[in-house]
């Protein structure tokens, strides 16, 4: 049996975490521009959440990606692959130079995450609505083994329009999966427009509470608040927790913020210049 | 009289034995555990059985979660719902990442009977066969099913196994040995060879007996693994008889007949006929009535064999 280790290089200094998130935004925009396509808006909106998870909250070991007691992270909104890759590279799972291969033929960095190509990705995603069910299976498996790991899963807000999400919502509550914490990146935009206009998901808090979940609302760009929500979730027994993280699509770059058109396109070279100026200021 | 056991019962028994031998076996069902026979496992190992309610997509996703934490999940429901309702989940989360999930679907084909078309899967093999990384198996009897369950536990990767609702004759003894991708050659005929799967294997053996009485040497091959298909066995049979019949309790589109045709047409085109459901939905009726209605009896196989021989 392996002993429970502290997260490799875990950071609790909020300013340092903010700086990592800033670096991650810079790197993911560089990789997107280099690739010429990919999902900008939803990668930026979730950057602070995923930074908080990988650099402060989760126990994991980049030198031992398959460590049995590691906390699991499942990116149900698989189109935020650029964010996941940048975070994994920043953690040291692979060399940052590989980021420039995104979406190229034979690259391990597929358009959407491929766990066969890149084993530090827990499961391939990209088709929306499936990650929560998978996270439930991991959490149930942990329960029957009395394992200490926790399971984190990130969903898009538009993604919760998928029916399977609600099947899985029932399952997590039914099986009392308190070792599971789901997070919705509530950036309020989906490809075709505003979530509330395309297909309303409100009242989102009431819905998840009605399904038997502990629900926490937080500012998805305030790392200290994200961490306190994640810590609070860990204390709740007998039910899963859903963190509704209020975010801004394209967060961090003025020309992308709140712009639906940047859901699925990469920044041009000129746009990247503007973005880097803002992020490096 | 031959002994009769439903392959779904054989599944339930094999699964329970497997659960005793291996702690990593977990079983999931979507509110049909009494029918799929996973209920037997549930009774013995309640801590490793998970009823997901009526939610096939979540059933498959949850099974994937178990698989990626090192468990060997068996996920069961009716073939229609498992292969159809959860097809895209099987594609994205089981096949694409090569998850070690065993999908064992019961109530395959039209012999579901009275429940009618909504519950009779005539497309599941086609739907599963088209998926990269998927292995597709239809055991012909209870003994083959018992062995299949043990073999797929040892095999690492996605598998779809089809079980039937009704009692069917026992064909194989304990000396039989199932191997993934290896057809069971009962006999190679000089005049015609019948390549069958599932319940049609027994009917094909009966048809071959009848043909023998008429002086026709008909061979029978049990193609229990539809994918990866045993190309070598197909070509040997085609070489020997220059006429091939396929027999399946499934649409003639996309299933065993198509798989065999693909091999023949690219390698050794010979006259061929497919006994199966002719691009139609099922209907209510007694299983034996439906077999006649859809042309899936030993007599239908015999007729097709005589017809194909004429085309040589």
Strand order of the largest sheet of chain B: 3-2-4-5-7-6-12
Largest interface: A-B, 32 and 31 residues
Number of beta-strand segments of chain A:
7
**Number of DSSP E strands of chain B:** 14
Overall shape of chain B: globular
Measured between the Cα atoms of the first and last residue of chain B, the distance is: 37 Å
Low-confidence stretches of chain B: none
Gap from first CA to last CA of chain A: 47 Å
Overview of this structure, please?
- The complex is a heterodimer of chains A (281) and B (312).
- Chain A is 40% helix and 12% strand.
- Chain A has 281 residues and is an alpha/beta fold.
- In chain A, α6 (163-174) links the parallel β2 and β3.
- The longest helix of chain A has 22 residues, at 14-35.
- The model of chain A is unreliable at 1-9 (pLDDT under 50).
- Chain B has 312 residues and is of the alpha/beta class.
- In chain B, the strands form 3 sheets. A 7-stranded mixed β-sheet of chain B has the order 3-2-4-5-7-6-12, sandwiched between helices. In chain B, strands 9-11-10-13-14 form a 5-stranded mixed β-sheet, sandwiched between helices.
- In chain B, α4 runs parallel beside α6.
- Chain B is globular and about 60 Å long.
